[in-house]
Amino acid sequence: MENSDQQVISVPLQVFPDQPSMIRRSLVTLFDGLYLVFACWLVSLPFQNWVLTRSVTFGSDLLSGSVIMELSKTAPFGIHEDQLTQLTLWAAEQGYAVAQRNMGIKLKYGIGTKKQLDESVRWFMKAMQQADVPSIRELGHAYYFGNGVEKDLANAATLYEVAAGAEDSRAECSYGMMLTDGISIRQDYAEALKYMKKSMEKDNSCVVILADFYEKGLAGKQYVSEAVPLYEKAVSERLGGAEFAMIALASMHEEGRGTAKNIEKAIEWYRAADAHSELARLGVATAQKAMWKKVMNSGGVKDEKSSKELLMWLDKAASQGDAESESLLGQFYDKGELVRQDRAIALKWMMKAADHGDANANLWVAKASENGKLLPQDNEAVIRRYCASANAGNLEAQYLLGLKYGSGSGVPRNDIEAYAWLNLAAASGYRDAVQRRDELSKSMTADQVLDAQKVARERQKISN
């Protein structure tokens, strides 16, 4: 949709009507509800059908607009969907905000009428002018995804914020997502968590989103375990995003993140449903990664069929920028496993994975830059890559950095830095680091050792 005809959104500053109007509307709604109950008790179903049909055909006053609007939500008396749409349209044209919103939803999804996104937006705007909170949220969705209007994330954020301020749970969740991403709006993890928790107090629309927030450690590394029961809830209650929850649970059990490492449970989750295989075919990178992990965790590559399946999903996930998939594919080409050895292709995938933060790939690229066989020798790049890998928890990178600082190879000699890196690797069980650290400590003062241990502890906190 062209932006030239687009109206500037004017969000009502006062979300709710004034007090007299609210009381008046409440009384009308109560009267209509009682009238409807009485009518259902008094008359037969065929007569109710006749009343509704006359209302559709002539805009009859037999039922007030608000009652028609309520009846238009479903088909309680067996009338056709197109008749319900006419009822909704009639009530919407009479100015009933909820009917205007329902008309917007029908046009948005093509329910009982042709799908028309621009017309959907027009009805949402009409309802918004009457301070209909769900319509404000729906307009936020329209601007976020560019449905019926030109995509405008800043406008979407404004609309979500207004609807969230009026306690709309889905808007709270959407606004929390935008605060998390920090695109066209400030990035604020604390505020994002606050809004998502408020949404959770009302319904389950934010279960998977909040679980993903915890899993990524955005609430703090100590809260990663909070993701597990939320993902399990999404699966057990078949909530939106349940397929992603299964994949996440498999990954967390496989890697021991937020829960005890349990390969058997990981395999169970990978096998739990075929839904994520459909997601993989639709191009979802996390699902594609789950598919190749499923092959590897189910006994590895046993024959040509499993080999092809593994490489297919691995290539698809890597092509979408998944760092772990890029790194593994690069390793296959580097070693000639499952594919013909090709160091140039290996370099391509390893560079991509390293740039996306994969620890193993950064170490591989550091070594390639150091020996000058695949990349020009570049000492600055070597140290940068070693540091990236070491900070991401790679023990070999921590050990090698310790050696470099201890000998002054490529960096100024610094015994405190050397001891700190060696101590990190040693603490995680890297045997060579233990011996080198102990040898280094003999040439250091007690204060230097204490300072180095402090540096190591601080780095351990960051990596955790």
Report on the structure:
- There is one protein chain.
- This protein has helices at 19-42, 45-58, 65-71, 81-93, 97-109, 117-128, 133-145, 153-165, 169-181, 189-200, 207-215, 227-236, 242-255, 263-271, 275-281, 285-297, 304-319, 323-335, 343-355, 359-371, 379-391, 395-407, 415-427, 431-441, 446-463.
- The chain has 464 residues and is mostly helical.
- The chain starts with 18 loop residues before the first helix and ends with a helix.
Give the structure's gist in a few sentences.
The protein contains 25 helices and no strands.
Topology, element by element:
Layout (H helix, E strand, L loop, with lengths): L18 H24 L2 H14 L6 H7 L9 H13 L3 H13 L7 H12 L4 H13 L7 H13 L3 H13 L7 H12 L6 H9 L11 H10 L5 H14 L7 H9 L3 H7 L3 H13 L6 H16 L3 H13 L7 H13 L3 H13 L7 H13 L3 H13 L7 H13 L3 H11 L4 H18 L1
Helix pairs in contact: 2-4, 3-4, 4-5, 5-6, 6-7, 7-8, 8-9, 9-10, 10-11, 11-12, 12-13, 13-14, 14-16, 15-16, 16-17, 17-18, 18-19, 19-20, 20-21, 21-22, 22-23, 22-24, 23-24, 23-25
Main β-sheet, in a few words? none
- How many helices does DSSP assign? 25
How do the SSEs run, as a string of H and E?
Answer: HHHHHHHHHHHHHHHHHHHHHHHHH
The whole-number mean of residue pLDDT values reads 82
Q: Approximately how much helix is present in the residues?
A: 55-70%
Report how far apart the termini are.
Answer: 47 Å
Low-pLDDT sequence parts: 1-8, 12-20, 37-78
Strand residues, percent: under 5%
What overall geometry do the principal axes of the alpha carbons give? Answer: elongated
